[in-house]
Amino acid sequence: MTRRHDNQLLGIDIGASGIKAAVVDIASGELRSERHRVPTPAPATPERFGKAVRKVVAHLHYSGPVGCCFPTIVVGGEARSASNLGEHWIGVSVEETFSDATGLPFDVVNDADAAGIAEMRLGAGRDLDGTVITITIGTGIGSGMFRNGTLIPNLELGHMPGFDGEPIERYASGNARKRDDLSWPEWGQRFDYFLKRAARVCTPDHFVLGGGASKRFHKFSDEVTVTIPVHVANFLNDAGIVGAALVAAESR
Ligand code: BGC
């Protein structure tokens, strides 16, 4: 499929474990193609990522502008942190790497910022004013901050120090639940600790929870005692894809 309409763009969500992509209707956020997923290459080098992204684009027979989200701090299309990918990404232009690999124009933003944009524009955050913090729970903990709908990019709440001085995402992410073999309530207590720390630092009016674990909110909601209202994301695991496509649309 080539790009069928001006209001459809390809969104790609690069995660620490998978690369997910689909063509997105930017007015509704609905996926207009197959949701294609391939494993994230290991070792996680720019060359291997470029090849994987080229294959994903070819698989979807897509041609046109691409929105892409990436699991590091991203400034001007460039990775500015190692996060879960490795130090070698710091200073690499992710936009240029993928544009060169595919011959298509790329807009690249942080993955949690993209997921937050999807929720704030078209999902669970659509009617929320004031300061909204969107959280993605996965390999790490990603965070997006919005003030009356405007993104303040690259908030890294998952990197607040935890009990042991290590980034708090190592204690409270979805990966930590699996690694430490925690029940949902046990993990929910850790996550609640994270939310309370985030609330103390940022005083948001709302939290919106997305990413893998948010689909299981009913399994840990009893442990969430933070006093800020908590909403569950609408786009769940597709939020990054949808938000990335919206970012590309908004930049044009
Ligand atoms: C990274 C963030 C990212 C999050 C979710 C964290 O480790 O520092 O930039 O948004 O993981 O992928």
Descriptive terms for the model:
Nucleotidyltransferase, domain 5, five-stranded mixed beta sheet, 252 residues, binds beta-D-glucopyranose, 23% strand, alpha/beta
For this structure, what is the CATH class of the largest domain? Alpha Beta
- How many separate helices? 8
| Helical content (DSSP H or I, runs of 4+) | 25-40%
Question: What would CATH call the architecture of the largest domain?
Answer: 2-Layer Sandwich
Spatial extent as radius of gyration = 17 Å
Our measurement of the CA-to-CA distance between the termini, rounded to an integer number of angstroms, reads: 22 Å
Number of domains: 2
The strand line-up of the biggest sheet is: 3-2-1-4-7
Query: What structural class is derived from the secondary structure elements?
Result: alpha/beta
Low-confidence stretches: none
- Give the biggest beta sheet: 5 strands, mixed
The chain-level mean pLDDT equals 95
Encode the helix/strand succession as letters: EEEHEEEHEHEEEHHHEHEH
Q: Report the CATH topology name of the largest domain.
A: Nucleotidyltransferase, domain 5
Number of strands: 12
CATH superfamily (homologous) name of the largest domain: ATPase, nucleotide binding domain
Distinct small molecules: beta-D-glucopyranose
Give the overall shape, derived from the CA principal axes: globular
Share in β-strands: 15-25%
How would you describe this structure to a colleague?
The chain is of the alpha/beta class and 252 residues long. The chain has two domains: 8-113 and 239-250, ATPase, nucleotide binding domain (Nucleotidyltransferase, domain 5); 127-233, Nucleotidyltransferase, domain 5. Helix content is 32%, strand content 23%. Helix 3 crosses helix 8 (239-250). The longest helix has 19 residues, at 184-202. It starts with 7 loop residues before the first strand and ends with a helix. The relative contact order is 0.17. The structure holds beta-D-glucopyranose. The site of beta-D-glucopyranose (BGC) has 17 residues, from helix 3.
